[in-house]
Amino acid sequence: MITIKDIARVAGVSHTTVSRALNGNPLIKKETRDKIEKIAAEMNYIPNYSAKSLVMKKSYTIGLFFSSIDQGTSASFLVDVIKGIHLVLDENYSLTVHGIDGIQHFDAILPQRFDGILVMSQSDADNAFIYHVKQMGIPLVVLNRHLEDPGIMNVVANDRAGVKEAMDYAITQGHRRFAIIEGKAGFKSSTERKQGFMDSLIAHRLPLVPEYFAAGDYGVESGYAAMCSLLALPEPPSLVFCANDDMAIGAMNACYAKGITIPSQLSLIGFDDILFARYTNPALTTVHKPVADISKLGTTKLIELMQEPSAVTGQLFVKTAFMVRQSVASV
Amino acid sequence: MITIKDIARVAGVSHTTVSRALNGNPLIKKETRDKIEKIAAEMNYIPNYSAKSLVMKKSYTIGLFFSSIDQGTSASFLVDVIKGIHLVLDENYSLTVHGIDGIQHFDAILPQRFDGILVMSQSDADNAFIYHVKQMGIPLVVLNRHLEDPGIMNVVANDRAGVKEAMDYAITQGHRRFAIIEGKAGFKSSTERKQGFMDSLIAHRLPLVPEYFAAGDYGVESGYAAMCSLLALPEPPSLVFCANDDMAIGAMNACYAKGITIPSQLSLIGFDDILFARYTNPALTTVHKPVADISKLGTTKLIELMQEPSAVTGQLFVKTAFMVRQSVASV
DNA sequence: AATAAAAATGCACACGTGAAAAATGTTTGT
DNA sequence: ACAAACATTTTTCACGTGTGCATTTTTATT
Questions:
Q1: Please, which residues have CB within 8 angstroms of residue B210's CB and are 6 or more apart in sequence?
Q2: Is the pLDDT of residue A74 over 70?
Q3: Which residues in chain B are contacts of A220 at CB distance < 8 A?
Q4: What is the mean pLDDT of residues A175-187?
Q5: How many CB pairs under 8 A join A and B?
Q6: Which strands form B239-242's sheet, in the order they lie side by side?
Q7: Which residue, B88, B66, B63, is CA-closest to B77?
Q8: What is the pLDDT of residue A113?
Q9: Domains in chain A, please, with CATH?
Q10: Less Cβ crowding at N or C end of chain A, within 10 Å?
Q11: How many Å does it take to go from CA B250 to C1' D16?
Q12: Is the C-beta of residue A92 closer than 7 Å to nucleic acid chain C?
């Protein structure tokens, strides 16, 4: 492996000069710099990041930590997240990936090890981890899950506006009786999506019918159960908004079991736009959660925080996209 | 941050002794070692891996590279892969994750940067990368895709046996007219799965009907198209094996469109057991690809290769699991 | 008790890099 | 012509760790 000292010998200068030339230090004369850069390229020089890390007290590593409650939604998004990050991340940083639940002791989460940390969070069980990171003073961005703390940089989708957009569309399609299968109680995202649902109804002066609010927990089974109870009502809704696609799939199965045809007898809207939303029968109309955008913006912000630790933090919202497919009929 | 020199000062020994004690060097007297270990624990010492890397010429990093043709299957498996790896991987190694297609130039793929590399391969387009890694002399294990080269450690599922098991089951359920929708031409996995299909038919002395071999390319659309052509036959099959779940989903949609009910009018078997196989309508009977097991075994082998670069390489097969759900009827 | 052998520890250096301080060369001002 | 200011480069050291070899301490043998 060749080092700056090797280059120095060939160029007839000291290794310090080489170091400066290669790092864009203005102290070096232009022609010297050019000569050194040429030699470095010819000799195929690649810096030793261990040595760099040691002296610069930087790790050139950023960590991505994801929570995976069960095999839940975050799983299928992970590839998009990683791709999004790599699009933005400087070439000479490397990205290490960990499951939060796989961490034995937080002791190894040190500023020395990570120049920055991204948390792709699903659950408030991640808070212990998040506050450990914050307390260690490691630049931190939390993705995907809405946090209350204004001291932590937080990038999330604008769920509320996204749901409202979808509902507004449903109303233009002639629907009037709307039900919702809600997300897990206590999750910020559940509240936000429910709010978007209500925003639209209220804006259109439609009634909020208590029987049309069904509980769910983001699991497929809960969508199935909730749909069964909705269908058992004397006057069932004409459209059901499910707070995520998993529950929408459960709800679809319930309809299938009861002999209800979608969308002719009942319309359905989901949230997330998971990979298989387009392959359900019929294809699911849903609100796309912009995972790649969230990751890119989050990474950008993380880089800012790394350069300027006192940069302002707070919530940042990314727009959702409404995906019209086949599960909503016009009536 | 505290260093071995700090510990040395407190313990009243040289930093050399501390280094040896903490690394299990037998030159150190037991009581000295105990004392040093105690002090190190009390002072909350954590080794500086940059310095370690520099002097040991190791990176303490292993790289996971995955190919993602489109948003394909590998995507949803990634979490399982990462978890599988972490189960086996030593705590003081970190795992960096990259998309192969995101690599600009192979120059940065150096022994200096990676102590070992795992490739989660989907396509033979990865070969250029794989051979670069091999040529650099970096310990390497290729997962998921069957390679011919005996010089490369390769861990894959035993697709052929897995498909045969599924087909044997279908035969016990009374089926006699079997069709297959094949995988992408030229892929080793396509051939293997087709072989398993034929193995079973031949073992049971059932005829191989040329019209029942339909071409596919692992994409959802190709499953749809293939199923349409099968349904158009004068005597359609009673069961269709799809070389992966994506195509099975496409095939299901085709049946739905033609008014064919699964499984009463036609049975279906898939391969992979993707996350949503259990949420199709009806739930898809399929062959589970043991991604976590492949990852664990692959990582174990990689560690062996890292310790003993001359260790024997070759193919290693992991057993699949047959998942009986609702898409196969007994006739 | 003397001496050899063995066990335990310390010294000095190396790894590749970057930075402060020092040295050298170059230009400008009077 | 000489000093002062400036531009460029080199010298020296530091970062935290591991290792060959020298040195000291302990143990065993006579």
A1: none
A2: no
A3: 279
A4: 95
A5: 122
A6: B213-214, B178-181, B239-242, B267-272, B285-288, B321-323
A7: B66
A8: 93
A9: 4-47 (1.10.260.40), 61-156+291-317 (3.40.50.2300), 159-289 (3.40.50.2300)
A10: N
A11: 58
A12: no
